[in-house]
Structure formats: structure tokens, C-alpha cells
Amino acid sequence: MFNILSQKKQSVGLDIGSSSLKAVELRSTRKGCFELVGMGFEELSPDYIVDGAILDKNSVADAINRIFAHEHIKNNRVATSISGHSVIVKKISVVAQQEADLAEAIHWEAEQYIPFDIADVNIDYQILGEDDIDGKWNVLLVAVKKEKIQDYTQVLTLAGKVPALVDVDAFALQNAYEFNYEPAGNTTAALLDIGSTTMTINIVSGTEFLFTRDVSVGGHNYTEFLQKEFNLNYDTAQHLKHGEKVGTISDDDAAHVIDSVTEIICMEIQKTFDFFKHNSTVENIDRMLVSGGAAHTPGLIDALGRKFEIPVEIFNSFRKITADPRQFSTPMLEDQAPDMAIAVGLALRSAEA
Ligand SMILES: Nc1ncnc2c1ncn2[C@@H]1O[C@H](COP(=O)(O)OP(=O)(O)OP(=O)(O)O)[C@@H](O)[C@H]1O
Ligand SMILES: [Mg+2]
Fold first, then answer.
1. Residues with Cβ < 8 Å from 72, sequence gap 6 or more?
2. What CATH number matches the domain at 1-85+148-182+320-353, 3.30.420.40, 3.40.30.10, 1.10.3430.10, 3.30.230.10?
3. Which ligand lies nearest to the CA atom of residue 342 in the structure?
4. Rounded to the nearest whole angstrom, what is the distance from the C-alpha of residue 134 to the centroid of ligand 2?
């Protein structure tokens, strides 16, 4: 939805997550139709990106180049996105006599909503509509710390790519949802992207954005709890989490620890829903779609369904995207469907631009 930089056409989406890179290349076949032509995944060491800051840019740039080489992606114009504490997304109300005066009014107003020095952020906005009564405009305000944008664009430049578009994870996710699910106007959905360290929650009614929040929980917490409980190193705990047998640890004992972390994630979602409902006229969330690597966590989808008593599904990033079965098998696409949501949203966005 937003482009912090400029709007240029290309169709590679690159999701730079704290635990892995995800790349998707799409080709526009007919108007409004897309085919998957490239898809790649590269794990990153947990010390490359810490607390949202890219500490080892060279290693991340190398990993980007490995994906592009492996997937034969020639297009070097790349769309990426940012999440976490350096991103502020808010619906605000701004008084202006006419549309032409809005830009100045928004920059003026923005200061009170942004907990950083205004000189340190890039601001973008979208006009949602005018309130006829008193010249108030409803505006979606997006502010991202400049240093964060620099981090992400520098790493792309280091890899020899052109950072063509920088979006926000929540909007890339919404873009993938709108394209793949064509939601009806009255359906309110909670889109949850649960990564390694960040859970992005985006609440959308039809195609209208309502609310987003990033919470610092994710798959990493499962690994951490398993490490502590069974005294394991990181890699072994990851294997255990992914369902492999580790030593004499029983499935039940592992499941018990996993369920306790799921409980924490459910509580965080509940807190966000409570906050949202308190500040919104929308009373019900009709469905939940879960993406991100942690969507694979055993028992998570069922636990969410039980807790929130609404239909909960794994997000299918390729629901409306065609793919050559000789290159992308159905089981492979099913397996990667939740992981690629943000990369697909970015590739769609840039192909549409
Ligand atoms: N089969 C699986 N079972 C359980 N957890 C899994 C599985 N596959 C991936 N994960 C977990 O998903 C997480 C990675 O998800 P994802 O790739 O969406 O995160 P990220 O985008 O790198 O991180 P973030 O968005 O938080 O910066 C890791 O914690 C990983 O262990
Ligand atoms: Mg992620």
C-alpha cells in the first residue's frame, strides 16, 4: 500500500526476516493474473539481524545473492518491507480547508503521534476520506525511522540490487490477502504473520485497513523455552520444535512446552484484539489467517481456533497465483504457502505499480 521510496515497476518481493530471507518472483500473465516464476528461502544466522537492526550486512547480502543465483532471478529491482518498533502506522484525523493543504497539515499533526524526532523519520500517508461536517480528513499515517530504511536499502545495494520499493510488512501482508482471498466488504479478518521474533497483526474489514500492531513474540520463543526446559543448544531445540526426535525427550513433554508458548502468543493476540475493539466500532472479528514460519508450529492453529472461537486457517499465499507444476510441486507450494505471504504481497504490489 505504501512506498517509502519511489514507485517503480518490478516484480521481485524480498522479505528480509530476522531468521530467514524469502524471495518471490511473479510474472503478470493477463491483466490481474500472476504466475509464480521464482521462489527462494535462505536461513540467516540469528546474530545477523538482532532487534530489527541488520548487524552483519555482508552476510545478509551474500544470502540475498545466493537466493537470486539459485532461483535464476535476473530482475535486480527489489521490493522489500520493514516491521517492528521503528514503524508507526496510525489512522488520524486532520483539519484542512482543502486537499492541497493536507501535506503540510499532516506533517504538523504527525509530531504528536510519532514517538521519535520527526527529523529522524520518513513520513507517508494515504487519504481515506473527508468528514463533511468540519473539514476533517481521515488519513492513514505511516512513519518509519530513516536509519531502519537505510539499513534495508544498504543491504540490497551491497548485494547489487536496486531497492525499488520499501513497504511495511503489515501492508504487504494485506496486499497478499486482498489478492488471494478477494474479501467481501463485510468480512473482518485478523491477519497474523508470526515470524521468528515479531508477530504482525493486521485487522482488515473487506479491503479496508483498520488496525495494525507488531508484537515482539514469535517462533524464537518456542526455541528459547525448549532450550531452557531441556538444556539444549539452539540448533537441537530447533530440530525438536520442527518435530524431530531428540534424545529421550518424549513427544508429550515437548508438546507441553510448545503449548505453554502458544498460550503466551494467544494472550498477546487477545490483548491486541481488546485494544482494537475498545477503540473501534467493529465488534467482531470473523476469521483469522495465520502466516509466517511459526504458523507451522504443531497445535497453534487449533489452539487459536479454540481460544477465539472463530475459523482459523493457515494463510495460502498462492491461492490465486498460478505455477508450473514441473517447477513447483503442489506439496512444495502447500508447505511454503504461509512462509511466503509478505514476499508475495511485495511482488504483487510492485508488479501492480
Ligand atoms: N515446521 C516448523 N515448525 C515449527 N516452527 C517452524 C517451522 N518452520 C519454521 N518455523 C519457525 O518459524 C520461524 C521463522 O518464521 P519466519 O521465516 O516467518 O520468520 P522471519 O520472517 O525470519 O522473522 P521475523 O518476521 O520475526 O523477523 C522460526 O522461529 C522457525 O523456527
Ligand atoms: Mg517475517
1. 38
2. 3.30.420.40
3. 2
4. 41
For 111, other C-beta atoms within 10 Å of its C-beta total 11
pLDDT at 132: 64
Pocket probe mutation, ligand 1, options 14, 15, 16, 19, max atoms within 8 Å of Cβ: 19
Percentage, residues of the chain above pLDDT 70:
96
At 257-303, the pLDDT tens digits run 999 999 999 999 999 999 999 988 898 999 999 999 999 999 999 99
Q: Which atom of ligand 1 is nearest to the CA of 52?
A: 27
Four-residue CA torsion sign, 277, 281, 284, 288: negative
Q: Determine which helix (DSSP H) or strand (DSSP E) holds 77, and give its type and residue range.
A: strand 77-82
Q: Same CATH fold, 183-315 and 1-85+148-182+320-353?
A: yes
Supply the pTM of this predicted model: 0.94
- Which of 193, 196, 262 gets mutated to test ligand 1 (max ligand atoms within 8 A of its CB)? 196
Q: Reply yes or no on whether the pLDDT at 200 is more than 60.
A: yes
Q: Which residues pair with 138 in a beta bridge?
A: 93, 129
Task: Please work out whether the CB of residue 80 comes within 6 Å of at least one atom of ligand 1.
Answer: no
CATH for 183-315 is 3.30.420.40
> Which bin fits 255, alpha (ψ -120 to 50), beta or left (φ > 0)?
alpha
State which ligand 1 atom lies nearest to the alpha carbon of 84.
27
With a CB cutoff of 8 Å and minimum separation 6, the contacts of 272 are 201, 213, 215
The protein residue with its alpha carbon nearest to ligand 1, atom 12, reads: 293
- CATH of span 87-143: 3.30.1490.300
Position in ligand 1 atom list of the atom nearest CA 339: 18
Residue range 122-148: average pLDDT? 86
> Ligand 1 centroid to 117 CA: how many Å?
33
User: Residue 16 CA: which ligand 1 atom is closest?
Assistant: 21
Q: Where are the domains of the chain?
A: 1-85+148-182+320-353, 87-143, 183-315
242-255 residue pLDDT tens = 999 999 999 999 99
Residues with Cβ–ion distance below 5 A, ligand 2: 17, 195
- Could you report the per-residue pLDDT of 40-55, keeping only the tens digit for each? 999 999 999 998 899 9
